[in-house]
Write a structure and sequence with these properties.
It is a single chain. The protein has 122 residues and is mainly β. It has no helices and 12 strands. Strands 3, 4, 5, 6, 7, 8, 9, 10, 11 and 12 form a 10-stranded antiparallel beta sheet that branches. Strands 1-2 form a two-stranded antiparallel sheet.
Length: 122
């Protein structure tokens, strides 16, 4: 599987990276990230693409092989990456919001940090 994201208004860095798939991808609704808060922060996640009329698209999480960590969960979205916002931020997805941010993709080491969209308990 390849992840290709060009530099864009959602995330500055372009990436082209390959992963070995270990299972099917599933739509993901929330992820726990540790960048801003060391104990973790649950965030809504969406894919982001170069489509002015409908930039939000599904984000997917898929188990992949990582040479340093073994099995990890790759969270990816559209050709402009993914977009995140904390659960308490009640606003539409918007590139202009200071309470949202973009990433090319995420690698999460623990499946407990992923809440799938099709999981009734998630």
């Amino acid at each position: 599987m390849y992840v290709e994201v060009d530099a864009n208004p959602n995330c500055e860095n372009s990436v082209f990276i390959r992963f070995r798939e270990l299972g099917p991808g599933r739509p993901v609704a929330q992820v726990r990230v540790y960048d801003r808060i060391s104990t973790g922060e649950w965030c809504l996640v969406t894919g982001w693409r170069e489509d002015p009329a409908a930039p939000a698209c599904p984000a997917m999480a898929q188990p992949v092989e990582d040479s340093g960590a073994g099995t990890v969960y790759l969270v990816s979205g559209g050709n402009w990456g993914i977009r995140l916002k904390p659960l308490e931020v009640d606003e539409e997805w918007n590139l202009g919001s200071a309470r949202q941010w973009g990433e090319a993709y995420l690698l999460l080491a623990d499946q407990r940090d992923v809440r799938f969209a099709d999981d009734p308990e998630g």
